[in-house]
Amino acid sequence: MRAARWAVAVLAFVLLTACGGGAAGPSAERSLILATTTSTQDSGLLDDLLPAFTADTGWQVKTVAVGSGQAIELGRRGEADVLLVHSPDAEKKFVAEGTAGRRLLVMHNDFVLVGPDADPAGIRGVGVADAMKRIADSGSVFVARGDDSGTAAREKTLWQQAGVTPAGDWYQETGQGMGATLRVAAEKNGYTLSDRATYLSQPDGLTLLNEGDPGLLNVYHVIEMTTKAGDRVQPEAGAAFADWITGPAAQQRIGEFGRAQFGQPLFVPDAGKPEPVP
Q1: Domains, the chain, ranges and CATH?
Q2: From the record, what ranges are coiled-coil (predicted)?
Q3: Tens digits of per-residue pLDDT, 12-40?
Q4: pTM exceeds cut of 0.90
């Protein structure tokens, strides 16, 4: 089974490297698999955190950056040691299945609606449900991820709250991560929903048009995996990562990340605080 685990890890690492993903170098002795969202990678947060984690703990990290739903599925199959995700409803259902360990609050930021500066749908300065309805009613291009991510899940909720079933030529799904979806939206002069961190890290061609609604809160948790998910799981690795990312050194790094470049932190550290609520 150790050989099978190593094969999975190497394949994930090779594929990610080929696609520009950033995983730490391999170590046969102390190497863990982190399944996480594309937003933590595309924003550059992992590039800041993971070398510090390795330096502090000795654990190397192989990162699989996918949508939160896919990351949870990797955990469910016992193909990851720890998850860092942002789809609270799906996380709670998963933890209730009994194969995961601790689920700990890490940080939050928010979602934003971005699009062309001309704003043909007129979504500036209105509530988010009204904004979604205006996009649909105007037939303006909306580029969705459509990839079972936490962002895709929130987008579906927003359409439901707006009383809209998105369909037609104006509604286009990329099936890709946040960074790629932002690039497609810019190319098509369309709107999209993004986490703030990824948008700020690559804003070319799009304008932030709608923000601040309570329904746009975006919360991240770390979830440890246990051997109940499969005998390839290393519980000690997951615990090491969970303890570190919720510890004071990592929380300080999270709170400072982005401040120098963007004039504001891209994430708000939350470990040890009450759960943020809309």
Answers
A1: 2-109+219-269 (3.40.190.10), 110-216 (3.40.190.10)
A2: none
A3: 443 443 344 333 334 446 999 999 999 99
A4: no
